[in-house]
Amino acid sequence: MLEILSLVAIGLALYTLNASRNSAQKLGEEVMRLKGEVEALKASGVALPSPEAEPIAETLETVREAATDERAPADFTSPWTAKSGEADAGRAIFGGETSAVPTEAVAASETAEEGAAAPAVTPAKPKESFESRIGARWAVWVGGIALALGGIFMVKYSIEAGLLSPAVRLSLAAAFGLVLMAAGEFVRRRTQPLIANAFQNAMIPGVLTAAGAITLFAVTYVSYEFYFYFGPVTAFVLLAAVSFATIGLSLLHGQALAGLGLLASMLTPALVATQEPSAWGLFGFLIVAWLATFAAARIRRWQVVPALANAGMALWSVLYLSQASTVDVVPALVALLVLALGHGLIWPGAVKAEDLPQPADAKSSDALDRLLAPPAVAVSLTGALAMTFPALVLASAVPTLAHADYAFVIITLALAVLGALRGWAVYAAILSGIAVLMGTASIAAVPGGIFLDGIGTLAPPTLEGTTPVAVVAGPLPVNLLLVLAVLYAAIGLAGVRLRSALPGFAAVWSVLAPAVPFAVLSISFFTFGNLSFDAKHGLLALVLGLVFFAAAEAFSREQGEEEGLFLPQWTLSAGGFAFLVLALHALTDGLVTTLGIILLGTIAVFATRLRRWPVLPWLMAGAAAVVAGRIAWEPTIVGAANLSKTPVFNQLLAGYGIPAVLLAVSAFELRRWPGERIRNLLQALASLFLLLTAAILVRHGMNGGVLDSSVPTLGEQATYTLLVIGASAIMMSLDLKSPSPVFRYGSMVVGGLSVLSVLSAHFIGLNPYFTGELLGKWPVLDLLLVGYLLPGIAYGGLAWYARGRRPMPYVIMLALSGVALVFAWVTLSVRRYWHGEGIADWKGFLQSETYTYSVVWLLLGVLLLAVGSKFDSKSIRLASAGLVLIAVVKVFLIDMANLEGILRALSFIGLGAVLIGIGLFYQKILSGKSGTGEKPELNAQA
């Protein structure tokens, strides 16, 4: 059955060849006839310019003049004559003889003139029919596969049947493969002009050639693997020759054949095994195959096959570096460097700037699409990935693999250079940064099963009772990482300069240039450096910071006074500032570092007097963020052991207070700055740092110079509450003098947060009734005064100050918070009077104590009513009514059940007298008399 299929496939191929030959012959005859007509027209003197040389209208005018010539015409048969059944429309002169000019030409000229002004409409490409797909495409590919399988199965059949010797069988198979390749070339020469454009991906010559190549490849491999006719070297050379010949023939037969040759070349090293494998031999062969593929791709401008070549190179590199028993880094490094050079010089090579047009009026989305989809994007992306993955494998092998660190650095820098020199290599630039970051992090991380010893080298861990196992490891490449940071910064700045004609690409490099070296230097410093003082990292960071500020100045001068966002100015300035901050961390410690960072931000703000860069004020915000992060990491600024216990005048005052002052000064300096957001942000940060300063100093003083060794008390919490209330009043005052949304909304946010704090801490969490905290020996001048009465009075004053300046609900909230705190002070003071400085709930209640609560609550209600009437405050009067209601409920529900004798009677008598008095008071002040000029109601304001 297999033999029949093979013969049928060969017959189909011969039939196709004969049919193609006949078609080509007919086509050639038609071409010769047309050529004769053209030569005759030229000989007659009629100009036939090409469409590219002259407009169509001029050409048509020339034809019309020839058609309307007065000289006697003569008939001239031509394939360009008019349609069947139509008369000749004009004549033309041909060297003494006359001939009819086709009617179609005259009609076409008239039609072209009428529609000259109409825009050209490109007709839609017709959809390929099902018949075309089946007959012209699928049949070709299936036939090619059948031919290849036929050759293989013939060899298999001859082996099974024992018809011929192995050498003869293989020779016949090889001859069959050569015949197929020759047939492919013969068919190509005879039929390609007819079918090349219509069926480019189903070319019969290419299929025949591919079938022959597969047959030769199979014959060579069988001769080596099963019959041992060839040694490894000979087999390798023959397989390589077949692969390269296939790649070379792909220039004639198309990209599919190139892919087949590439696949064969990538499989060749895997199929041929030797006792002593050579890395140089492996990667030397891969380099040659890769270069051959890219040379063919450059000539034909292919993308699929070179992308597959990149994938194959990456796969072989990763497998060798990660799986080989003995690894030599240099051959793989050379292969990857050749890959980088091949992309830069062969394909895509020197892509011109006009291949990436970026008009000034282009939308940002269009610009982004052009940036991320450059010419030959498949080739550039796969090439960058082919260098990135081996580089990461090498980084993960540091320091156990010799020279892996140097190879990692060289590969990533080569990728960066490619990204800087070529305008299409945006993915090379981006992936170079990613590779550097991930590789550096991998080097800094502890490899599996290995830990750092005390001298900066790697040592193997040992288990108790086992023998230590030696691990070959070199010193950690700290200096190499610093060199990597410097070189990448230089390449990045060069990329910004070289890609200035492509703003999007230049913006990418302006981000990568400072960000990647900063990350490398930071990882190196925090992993391998001396955190107290490290001159190496510190001085290098200082130099790089100054370099990036100088680069920002140079690029800004080139930009001039143009409007709009100039991204390199932002990114390079921010990068320079980040390096200076890192230098402070490396060269200083503790309080000096904190103050130095905020001072750098202040200098950046005052630098706006010299350079009106929008980025400069935002550097102060970044400095404040870094200081806040340092405070969150170490609230004591200098460490708990080094913190002075002197109240107020200690390191905390400088570490928290000076940043607050400098932030306020910076906000004031920017009072005329056109951007309001940064000024508002600095005002908010100054307020925040001021509150932090006061709060941290209170905690330090109330806990004996210790910040983290005791839980908060009611007195400490009350101090925080008073500070927040004061901050809200200060922000309100600043808003009245210099209106600002930060002060306006910030004062209300702070006030609202303080109310929540009071509800959670003063009334529940730190209430002495629940906690049992002692109030102090002195009545009135005790913890209740600080915890309840003073905050209550402060809330009352803040509510009075906010009347007419803040929304009414906010004012009412403050007033009710003050009343609640005063009520709590009165109530807890009554309990202190009966129980002493310990008022814990486990002591229960006395009858006289219960009666006192009723009396005090009623008196407090009357007092609040008087105060509310005095200050014309509806909210205070409503609070007084609430207290009276609470007293009424208590008398009827609690006093009636718990009090006995005279106390019960006095409770009700007193309640009745007070309620009657309150009623008379309201009748007097609310009814009003006519003509007195008094307000009919006193609840117009809260």
Automatic annotation (TrEMBL):
Keywords: Coiled coil, Membrane, Transmembrane, Transmembrane helix
Keyword Membrane (UniProt): yes
Chain segments annotated as coiled-coil in the UniProt record: 17-44
The keyword Transmembrane is annotated on this UniProt entry: yes
Transmembrane segments: 135-155, 167-187, 199-221, 227-249, 279-297, 304-323, 329-350, 371-395, 401-421, 428-452, 472-494, 506-526, 538-555, 567-584, 590-608, 615-633, 648-668, 680-698, 718-736, 748-766, 778-798, 810-830, 850-869, 876-896, 902-922
Annotated protein name in UniProt: DUF2339 domain-containing protein
